[in-house]
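[SOLVED] Need 3D model of a three-part complex

Original post:
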Amino acid sequence: MQVKERIRRISVRYDLKRKWYRFSKSHLSMVGLVIALASILLAIAAPYVAPYPGHAGLTLNFKEKFLPPGLKYILGTDEMGRDVLSRTIFGFQYSLTMAAVVLGLVIPPGVVLGLIAGYYRGTWVDTLIMRISDIFIAVPPLVLALSIAAVLEPSVFNAMMAVSLMWWPWYTRLTYNTASALRNEYFVQAGEVTGASSFHLIFGEILPNCLGPILTKITLDVGWVILLGAALSFVGLGAQPPTPDLGTMVSTGANYMPDYWWISIFPAVAICLIILGFNLLGDGIRDMFVEEAR
Amino acid sequence: MELLLDVRDLCVNYKTYMGELKVLNGVGFSVHKGEKIGIIGESGSGKTTTMRAILRILATNAVIKRGEVHFIGNNVLKMDKKKLTEMRRRHVTMIFQDPTAALNPVFKVGELLADVVKYSHSFNAEKTTKQKLREISIDVLKEVALPDPQRVLDSYPFQLSGGMRQRVCIAMSLATARDLLIADEPTTNLDVTIQDQVLRLMKNLVEKKNLSVILISHALGTVRGTVDTVYAMYAGNMIETAPTEELFSNPLHPYTQGLLKSVPKLTGAGFSEGIEGRIPNYIDPPTGCRFNPRCDRALDICMKEKPQLLGVEDDKHKVACWLYSKR
Amino acid sequence: MRLSTYILKRSAFVVFSLIGLSILVFVMARVLPGDPARMMAGPRASQEVVEQLRKAMKLDRPLYEQYFYWVVNLLHGDLGYSLVTRRSITADVLEYLPTSLELIFLAAIFEIFGAFILGVIAGRYSYKWPDNVVRIFSYVGISIPAFVTAIILQLVLAWTFKVFPTSGMLSSTITKPPTVTGMLTLDSLIAGRLDAFADSMWHMILPAAALCMGGLLQDARIIRSGMVENKDKDYILMATSQGLPDRSVMFKYLLKPSVIPAVTVMGLDIAALLGNAFLVERVFNWPGFSQLGITVMMNKDLNAIVALVLVIGIIYAIANIAVDIIVAYLDPRIRLMERGE
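Solution:
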């Protein structure tokens, strides 16, 4: 089978079997993997899993507002009488979608720029690209995200744009560090000497060796992007009510502390869980790429 | 001759994720006062582990299963902290294989040396001044033929060349050693041109201070010109010992024979031979004599019982091999 | 290169970044979709009002002219005029920023000491229970966003167990000392008012703790890893083999190389503190730059937004230089090796 043969070749080339072995030995990494996968599944299946999917949108149920966790509404209801559990589940969907979109937007250009800067290291290309990214890195991420979002209309889309706009330089910098170090390695020079094109060298030789740190960063970033999104919503600049975004829920719920604590706490726990899962996963992935010494 | 160091039946394991590595399998040897012994063997045979056990600086995941290490009558493995510290400061010292790794990268050489000098010299550690320590440090560096000792003291290790770093390490050891010097592959990591220099330096200093030496190397040539007695080690056991020339001209153990044959010779026959196989898996080592899977003359008993290191004709040349025991 | 050269180089680089940043934010504020004049005036204001506003915001001039005016003002210490608070932004900043800085300083102190102590304990007793406790906490702690920690701390220690106050800077029963620096704690000390000092500290502990928690646990873990990894390194074994006292080996020779990676991370930690302060202040109603920032952002006060970002950028840059200096002091390899060595 063509496909089977391809899969086999890729797993040999990238040494996947041994990497998986290393990964699976760490209990924490496996826990992270489980949590991350569960979150993703939950996000995809949200409309089918949530007991009251309608509550995720514009629902007014004042008769049942502020109900503590109980049988009918397992995690209680919020100030509009909406089921906290359902909204939290949809919150997963929102947050993970946002993470996926942002990272999808940010990674390709970020990584490519980093590769190019690394390959043409020492030239004006390098200086130009890296100086521009340094500008973005000069300000704390949250502050920058907030200011960009502030200039735009508050909405989920704009929040995603804001985060994307300030996030790409981190990937450029990371890729640049690895790529520029590899640039003068023998295997690259060997390629040059035998007449390989720059394109092939950058994407065929250098890129595969950068994958380790990049993949690790991606998993850790899922947590960070969600955090940033939650922070933006917390401040009112991201998702607007009634969108069931986890950050917004924590923020509005905070107004009702401590009496109706469940409105804020459960979405907060959800945020923490997602971040924890992806962080553990990220650690595991990083360990996968560590060279075995002795 | 007075017995300085006596190691008996030393067994050390390392705990790892994949299981317990049973590295040292009953190591035994001795060093007399004024004696220079060499230990040869492949990488991974347990030479470094043995030396570290003597000074009790094994890694955190090491476990001493059994055995005794007697230094001038005291069992090092059971010593209290005070005695152990005294032994380390005054009597026994070690030169490490990689001088770059052996020097703390974020401290100046002067600081490292001052501390060593401070704690090892015979005066009261409290009452010394920085000035005095510096003077002594400079003297010590001069002894190892380092040009411009002042500059060296003010440098960081990475600013010195490999040869210079090893000289610094040698200087530090000589500040502490009075009786026994353990040199763990001291020249292996250096350029070939420097190796000879450093080795000769060491020899001179050993003569001058009348130290006993344990020299570890897998370079047979280095050992041959330097020591009186040689021990050959394989997979955690001493398998043969004899006075240097005797061992090199008349090796008895199949492993030693193979080892000596694998040294390429400039004259005579073409390619050298190697020894079939590799060092054993320490998690599940072979029973009996650990060399038996690779031995072309293995007997039945070799797989069942471990042979002891016993004298063959005289007491000086001993082998641990069933081919020579009366069984 | 020498330490002073290193510092100069870094500073020059930072100034350059800040200039670039100012241009960037400036351009963004003027160029991105949305009419700031309209946004500020609101959807129901008439077109004339919007036009008037646009003139007042100087949005009708060409971009480079706007930037030029802005820079000139900046160099005079004038950050511009806030259309929201109706006074100079500099005054706004001077009023709100010190209170945030106060909080951030305390959080930084907590973080440094806390990480150190926890990291060393975990490293010393590695794989035994203190280490495991620290490691579990650090995994969890890194995953909890600062504002969540803030909410939880507030819920548990302020609302439920009433150990700390739930919000604000000063109890209502205590009179405020005269403003000198804008930082309540310092002002109290200057005025000799120990009661105000104690009270304001007591109000600061919870928010500062929430701010620094994530970074604290992360740094502790880095220190711990460093110690465990370096424990078996040759240079440590050699020090032990030379008979140096355990105390010396541990606290001098082991600690220094183990701490350096954590210090290197501190630059990012400071970024986290600056950013998280924004959120944590909301939870505790702390009148710092978050209050100013939110008002300004909600009202699309572009001048103020740009000024605020720049001020924070400058603070961050200074802090980063300070961290770099400390790292260069601790690790000689950084300042003495040229790039590419």
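Edit: Residues 38 and 223 of chain B are 6 Å apart (CA to CA).
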